[in-house]
Amino acid sequence: MKIDTTTYKEINRPMYIIEEARLRNNLRIISNVAKRADVEIILAFKAYALWKTFPIFREYISSTTASSLSEARLAFDKFGSKAHTFSPAYTDYEIEEIAACSSHLTFNSLTQYERLHETARKQNPEISFGLRINPEYSEIETDIYNPCAPGTRFGVSADKLPKQLPEEIDGFHCHCHCENGSDVFVRTLAHIEEIFAGWFKQIKWINFGGGHLMTRKDYDIELLVNTLREFHNRYPWLKVIMEPGSAFGWQTGPLVAQVVDVVEDKGIKTAILNVSFSCHMPDCLEMPYHPAVRGAQTIEEDIDYSVPYIYRLGANSCLSGDFMSAWQFDHELQIGENIVFEDMNHYTTVKTTMFNGISHPTLAMVRENTNELEILREYSPKDYIERMD
Ligand SMILES: Cc1ncc(COP(=O)(O)O)c(C=O)c1O
């Protein structure tokens, strides 16, 4: 079926849609940065794990980052290369399989390293070990996403790092960005160097984590490339790795939902949809953020429901708070019409739940050039029941 990507009018079921053309555009931008700055940029699965699209990724990048055994297996089995893995809590009962699926294994603490590195090495003699460091500097404003807030459980701060690193530590890993621009990276890098450069002679690689939103329109790519080149000039022996997730899936397509009913209470009109914020767009409630809806204006303050065509959008779950306010449309919403939530692929598609047994949106891709819709995965009640089998 051919799809009109301006309206998605051919679609009448909930569906996450990846537009291949947009995905390739992001991949081109990212692989150009990697080439020009002489760094390796790898995909963070935590943000994007739609493995049926991995053959497209493989045309542009060759590795990925995992944060669990399942993601490490995904790297090995479906992406076709061993992962750069970081978890704050490796366990005795998973470390061997994780090591077997990983090229790089970053430990969150020196105790995790001491406990587990020999087992990991035995399993995979080629593996390279890293240590997560914490520069105690981050410009992330939302606390839930800030790994440098006081009391953090992530990484080793400079005051706790021994002058001589453990012999088998080859690299540093540092993650302290979230949807940031390269100006933030410049300032953060200055802190990292000020605090940790004394150890750089002892390591071979440094991973600057995720949160570098290099595919956003206003991202200053030249500043990033120049900053990384200058870093290379200062420390030519260090291989630089970056592991963004969001940047890959950024604005690659929407979640298309449909209006099922319109109800009203105390003058507030709610269009009830066949999707849920809690189950299918959890970051809207968690972050929180107000997603863009195609053809509608978001209204954040002074919502006046007596103004025509202003609606809450409500979910099909039993959670009272599973709604968001408000959007103004240019017409009265009709049952069956599409509501197109923009930019719903990164994080969303990996975080969904089947709470209430609500039908999970289909995963699909619109092919470049032909605009043909390719179904990646459809769900049925069997999927809900089998999760607890
Ligand atoms: C260790 C680590 N690496 C990479 C990422 C990916 O970040 P983003 O999707 O913001 O680029 C995250 C996100 O939380 C992370 O914790």
Description:
- The chain has 389 residues and is of the alpha/beta class.
- It folds into 2 domains: 20-249, Alanine racemase (TIM Barrel); 250-387, Lyase, Ornithine Decarboxylase, Chain A, domain 1 (Beta Barrel).
- Helix content is 28%, strand content 21%.
- The protein has 12 helices and 18 strands.
- It has helices at residues 20-37, 54-58, 69-79, 95-100, 110-123, 182-196, 221-234, 246-249, 277-280, 282-286, 348-351, 381-387; strands at 15-19, 40-41, 43-44, 64-66, 83-86, 102-107, 128-132, 169-173, 205-207, 239-242, 255-265, 268-273, 297-298, 310-314, 323-328, 338-341, 362-366, 373-377.
- The strands form 2 sheets. Strands 1, 11, 12, 13, 14, 15, 16, 17 and 18 form a 9-stranded mixed sheet that branches. The chain has a 9-stranded parallel sheet with strand order 2-10-9-8-7-6-5-4-3.
- Strand 14 (310-314) and strand 15 (323-328) form a beta hairpin.
- Helix 6 runs parallel beside helix 7.
- The longest helix is centred in the N-terminal third of the chain and has 18 residues, at 20-37.
- The radius of gyration is 23 Å and the shape is globular.
- 39% of the residues are buried.
- The model has no long low-confidence stretch (mean pLDDT 97).
- Bound molecules: pyridoxal-5'-phosphate (PLP).
- Pyridoxal-5'-phosphate binds at residues 44, 46-47, 65, 86, 175, 178, 209-211, 243-247.
- Its EC number is 4.1.1.96.
- This is Carboxynorspermidine/carboxyspermidine decarboxylase.
- Belongs to the Orn/Lys/Arg decarboxylase class-II family. NspC subfamily.
- Residues 218-344 form the Orn/DAP/Arg decarboxylase 2 C-terminal domain.
- Keywords: Decarboxylase, Lyase, Pyridoxal phosphate, Spermidine biosynthesis.
